[in-house]
Write a structure and sequence with these properties.
Keywords: Hydrolase, Manganese, Metal-binding
Shape: globular
Strand content: 5-15%
Largest sheet: 7 strands, mixed
Catalytic activity: beta-D-fructose 1-phosphate + H2O = D-fructose + phosphate; beta-D-fructose 6-phosphate = dihydroxyacetone + D-glyceraldehyde 3-phosphate
CATH topology of the largest domain: Rossmann fold
Helix content: 40-55%
Bound molecules: 6-O-phosphono-beta-D-fructofuranose
Distance between the termini: 31 Å
GO molecular function: metal ion binding; phosphatase activity
Structural class: alpha/beta
CATH superfamily of the largest domain: Uncharacterised protein PF01937, DUF89, domain 3
Number of helices: 19
Family: Belongs to the damage-control phosphatase family. Sugar phosphate phosphatase III subfamily.
GO biological process, one term: DNA damage response
Amino acid sequence: MPFPGLFKLPYDRCSPKEKKGFAYTSLVKRWPVVLTNIVSAVSNVNHELHMNPDANSEAKLVEGKKIISQISQMKYDMGHNAALTPIENDGDINRECYNDELRTYPDEDCRWGTMNWLYAECYMYRRLRSYFASTVHWKEYDPFFEQKAETYKSSSVAIVHLAKAMNQAVQETDDLSQNYEAEGSALEIAFLEMIQADLWGNATDLSLLVDLKYEDIQKLQAVGSAAQQEQAKNILRNDLPRVWSYLKTVKNGRVDIILDNAGFELFTDLILADFLVSCTPFVDTVVFHPKAIPWFVSDVLPYDFTWAIDSLLDSSFFASHASTPLSPDDLASLSALASRWKRYLDSGKFKLSVPADTKLGKATPLGRFWTTQYAFQDLPEVAPGTLDELRKSDLVIFKGDLNYRKLVGDAWWPTTTPFEEALGPLAGKITLLSLRTNKADTVVGLEEGVAERLDKEAPDWRISGKYAVVSFSERRRR
Ligand SMILES: O=P(O)(O)OC[C@H]1O[C@](O)(CO)[C@@H](O)[C@@H]1O
């Protein structure tokens, strides 16, 4: 094993061996659908090639058919509890780490039905990538791009709403920041609204849209924390007050966002980043970390990032999906927003952690770690360079469920385990915030009795995406 110092979890990782767990549901219901959808995406391209051939069509068609048969084989293997096999050399990053770990398991533990869920799910996406990476004509093909684009296009109502709210906040920055240090200040209320929009963006819950007009925020202030609490009632652990207290100690700092999904969630990440940079004195730079290969269907790739911003400048982009066409005023708001984001990218206030034109599967060292199978507890051991880079940041925000699973090792911790304890060797190394809507079994940091109550009231609370945990951990400076 190349990394003998990996964190020893005190509890088992989730695995499909437990038939009642979500890992099992993933194996028997979710993954087959993911694979079938890719087969259908590749078949559609093949069909197109057939109908409109060009010089490369024949070779690409042949490769496409091979990819379809490899994916079908993987699906068959899953259904028949076959053993996971080493990933073949495809010239892409992060192959050895999967194969090295695979070798450490006894035969009975490395089958689709017995392997720990975190490894198996990451392996599935890395293995899928290898089918495309090994070709000539499909190397840059993202089988999930159409799905990501569809969800983005269908979110135009929320996108326009947030764009207008954000533009308004930028115009009213002076009002917003009056007495910002006072408890319950307009800036604090606006921050809490913004960050919750970003949190629920992970569930693509469009029902919690914010209004950031100074006038509206004053109304919110009038009803005080009750309104905030109402909005936050499904957040089972809520460290946002601690985050706000901490942020107030930061001046012209740097925030990093370990991204999750493209489309609407990425848009809410950009909105939060815009708010922090444009409306607060705390943050000057936001660094966005995308994935290096198509990952968990909808995760952000470098291309998705640039494309999301450019699309806002294309007046016809939402036209095919909007039930009512966007008005000139809507389009002007989107254009003002995207132009500001482009200026921020040019000036370095917004940064992508890897070059925007990074090819799939070829990320620089800083872009590699997020598509390995490692839990983030092992970040200090397996990716010290990435950790050093994150230590330059004042706050590292981890978005979404998979990032949360990796932070706590996807293990069956008792639900009252302190978040810091579950972070293992990562605790205290960086200041971090996890914004997660619950879509998997693992969860920590809850008060005594919460899990038991929810087991009765809403038995699917761990996986439905309707509940969330917001977990903060501060760096220890020695
Ligand atoms: O996009 P997110 O929030 O990381 O969620 C991805 C989620 O998909 C699932 O893996 C299911 O396959 C989750 O349970 C997982 O963690």
